[in-house]
Design brief:
By secondary structure, this protein is of the alpha/beta class. It is 43% helix and 14% strand. The chain contains twelve helices and seven strands.
């Protein structure tokens, strides 16, 4: 039985397309007949809203059957997983209380590994081929938890004047986490929100190429209004408009992710 691969999507800068990338890669992998569990760890609920309407997302968030309930209230994780409308694709939703998890984790024994222990039964069951973690845009104990639970890190990076801001802090944080979780590796940086009419993409790519041991995915994700329409309809863009440019790009990106993870 193949080992479950756990991938965390993180960037300490908001607006990088992190949740959009996580949701669409998850959906694209499910189309490859891979069994996927998505884990929403952000109090903004964006990953949850990518698959469920606002009423359902808020209902999940206000109950104890979500990531916060599993972490802090002892709700069995099996009770916190919901089937999406798509085969092979399940979701562990977030809670608006996740903002308090940062502080509550400090009282926990081996606080860096709470999420890893939480996911252990799911991993050991072999129920999923992939578990994708959507981290909040911070660098603290919660994100450290998510990274300590993961095999790989993917950093979505916006091609904008501010996209690179704080990236050095992200890499420093990664090195810190790797000291306590050596299995974690950087799968790569994916450049998002690319406007090919502007020079920001070339500038971003040039800056990344100067960094040592930083892999950049070949597939970029361009700006596309279909993504916003898909979000408005609580769907991944691949499901909403499969022929759109961004949908095709996410399908190709998911192939790169699978090839790297399964090698």
């Amino acid at each position: 039985m193949a080992k479950t691969k756990i991938i965390c999507f993180a960037n300490n800068k908001g607006g990088s397309g992190k949740s959009t990338t996580c949701s669409n890669i998850g959906y694209a992998l499910s189309l490859q007949n891979k069994r996927v569990l998505l884990v929403d760890a952000d109090m903004q609920l964006n990953l949850t809203l990518a698959f469920f309407g606002e009423e359902d997302a808020l209902s999940f968030a206000k109950s104890d059957k979500n990531l916060y309930g599993a972490m802090m209230k002892g709700t069995p994780i099996s009770e916190c997983i919901y089937q999406t409308a798509y085969p092979n694709l399940d979701l562990l939703p977030s809670s608006t209380l996740m903002s308090g998890a940062e502080y509550e984790l400090f009282t926990k024994w081996q606080r860096e590994f709470v999420v890893k222990k939480l996911l252990a039964p799911i991993v050991e069951s072999g129920l999923y081929d992939y578990i994708l973690l959507d981290a909040p845009p911070t660098l603290g104990c919660l994100v450290m938890n998510l990274l300590c639970a993961a095999d790989f890190l993917i950093i979505p990076l916006e091609a904008s004047p501010w996209g690179l801001f704080g990236l050095a802090n992200m890499f420093d944080f990664l090195k810190e986490v790797q000291q306590i979780s050596p299995v974690l590796s950087l799968m790569g940086v994916v450049i998002t929100k690319v406007d090919t009419r502007k020079n920001y993409y070339k500038q971003t790519l040039a800056a990344l190429e100067e960094l040592e041991n930083v892999r950049v995915f070949s597939q970029i994700i361009r700006l596309d209004s279909a993504i916003e329409w898909a979000q408005d309809n609580s769907k991944p863009v691949i499901a909403f408009k499969k022929g759109s440019r961004s949908a095709l790009e996410y399908v190709e990106l998911a192939k790169e992710v699978a090839e790297y993870a399964d090698r």
